[in-house]
Amino acid sequence: MPPKSAQEKARSPVESLWKAYNEDTPDRLKFVDSFLLFLMLSGIIQFMYCVLVINYPFNAFLAGFASTVGQFVLTASLRSQVNPVNQGEFKDVSPERAFADFALGSIVLHFFVYNFLG
Amino acid sequence: MVAFKRLLLLAAAFASSYAKSSSGDSVLVIVEPKKQADYTLFLDGLREKGYDLTFRSPRADAPLLTQDGVPSFSHVIFFAPDTKSFPSDITPQSLVSLLGSKTNLLITLSTKQTSLTSLAAEFSLAPAPPGTPLISYFPERSEPLNVVPIQPPSTSHILSQNMAPVWFSGTPFALGNNPMLVPILNAPPYAFASEVDGGSADSLVDAAEKGGEGLWAGSRMGVVTGFQTTTGARVVWAGGAELFSDEYAKKQISQGVESGNKQFAQEVASWAFQESLVLRIDHTEHHKFNTTTPSELYTTSDELVYTAQVSRFYPERGVWKPYSDLKDLQLEFTMLDPHIRIALPPVEGKPGTYSVQFRAPDRHGVFKFVINYKRKGFTHLLSSTTVSVVPPRHDEYPRFISAAWPYYMGAISTSVGFFLFSAIWLGGEVKAFDKKGKGRKAE
Amino acid sequence: MHVFVASLLLLVASVHAKILTLQSPRFVVLDSQGQQSRSEPISLTQKSRNPVFLNATDTLKVTFQVVDKESGEGTQPHQTFLRFYDATTDEEGIQPIRVTQGGKAKLELNMARPPLSLPPTGDVPLQVMLYIGQPNFSPIAVELFDLHVPHSQPPPAHPDEASFHLLPEIHHIFRPDQKLPYKLVSAVFSGLVIAPWFLLVGLWSQVSPRLTHLFSPNVLPFILSLGAYEFLVFYYWVDLKLGQVLLCGGVLAIINLFTGKHALSSIAKRRLNKD
Fold first, then answer.
1. What transmembrane ranges does the database entry give (chain B) (predicted)?
2. B303-340: pLDDT as tens digits
3. What is the CATH number of domain B279-390?
4. What ipTM describes this predicted complex?
5. Which of B141, B189, B403 sits opposite C180 (nearest CB)?
């Protein structure tokens, strides 16, 4: 045991976090996480464009940014509902039910986004 | 036989010089019956033009100027300069209200003070004190000093060019600076107002030193002055009635040169009775640039086109014809204050049409197209059309703007990402919910 | 005007009028100290060739005596007027000159306290004329000189006067059009926004579940109807109106409901069976 803990302490916390994430997270959740990462990047780039270049069709900025943020929220809630670790909290929500909510919410979000996009 | 005679008379009437007023033919002449014969040349001239004359003594009560609130005559001539008091229906107030009902007036004053003298003050005219007619030592002549020959101005819209001098006798008036006054004939520069006999030089110098309008002298004094009211009615004030009399019309200026009184009197009456210099706006229209139908509602920054049709009255034939010679017509687009004021030029090829295209301001509100054309001697042209200018509707804004491409791409990419995510989620194996290691092992 | 007066003067009527004349007519220009800067006799037949200039502190004095030409006696005429006239603005002023019983006339024009009769002046000189009239005498009109005086206030105009002339044009200043950035910049950023796709595709290729049931008849209709919904909402942005979208959306909602229920229940069954 002692050699192992020494080995663990020698690594940086970020590396150990990353190793733990990689080993412990199921593939399906990693699939969701990559989508979340994608959405975050997309939102950040749109925000940088708004701040750096021009915010002229402000409604377009709001629509584009809100689409990424809203989708992020919906996907995150899907992830937490579907995560087997949280099974205890979501006893009466089956993964299918979670996905149905996710799909409905996304459609409605996209409707409002395209309405406001101009 | 009678009918044939009538036909001949009608034909003769049409063949002769025929000038009609644009606002009616009935004229009331207020004159002492004894003096009526003094003005036959002038009055016959009016009859020839087609006017319908009715006579009334200044002391008589009938015919009334207005009956039940409606004016009975289109024009009224006052040839009673010496009458001190008029019947009850002729007061300064009633004459002003007559003007409000578009009745034209031709009023002669004299050196005596009457109730009409106080009315002249309302028109920015100050007649000389009573008993001081206009006198002139120039030119040397055998007539008395207060019978003055005056050369009409060479540049006048109202009088013809090259008219012979006009004999005048009466009171001059000092003109105020009211722009609605239309000077027709001013006193000669060497003339002044004074008693005919026994006027003293010292009193003239004292009057001038009093300041203000102590001295009535010079060419800034009017002798026949017109006034164009805002309602469209015209008044002509003359300092003396002899100007219109037969005696002065026949009096020669010099050997073989007839006086211009007859022609002058007719032309003054022609302006006063709305024959000459009468304009009107026939109709106006407005529409958006590429359309032809007018609309109550325009959007800010729209290109608008405004067109006005102006006619002038030609008394020789008594008709209105399109008139394209107004060079300085202006259009105002007003909301409380003019936001836009631009020239309204005539259109080539379309007589009487004036048109301009301009861009509506980018402020919204209730605007008016206003034409407010006032020039000395001409009828005032006033036209006002109200329209609303509204901001663009929600779907009239520009779309698919190049600056927003990243945002469009972001929204679309989220949409596509969601679709692919759902497809893979639904189509994928359920087993992958297990931990990474286990799932692999199961395969 | 002067020509007309002269021509009328020639048309002498049958009355043989007596003749007046001016004796020793003279004008003098004094400065504020009383020094004479100019002193000239006035010619009755010709206008003075050199115009008279008056500063704000100068004084102009005109003196003459009116006498009967034949008898030489001085007379006080009824009318002794000095006329100031500006030919460009048509402004005029008449100043009577005080004449004694013996015909001695004197006029003093002090520019420090100008008389009320002086008309408003600008750049153009005033034409100065003298008119003398007396019953039973031939009248006299003399053109004196051109007079330059300092500028005065313009005459007070009636408040409506401006509306009787051409008014100044008013043009509306529009808000400047929105300045857009270069299309290249927008295109580059659009590219940047799409760039995360590469990352996404890369990550998904590693962790996505195997697509075994993608084309099964249970699941495919649902996927397709979701896709249709997304397309409808996108097309709403491109070209549709709200009413059309809600109509189609309502129809698609029903389809989605059925296919979704079917698809999800089949997935659930599979998952439970497996477990």
1. 405-428
2. 999 999 999 999 888 899 999 999 999 999 999 999 99
3. 2.60.40.1930
4. 0.89
5. B403
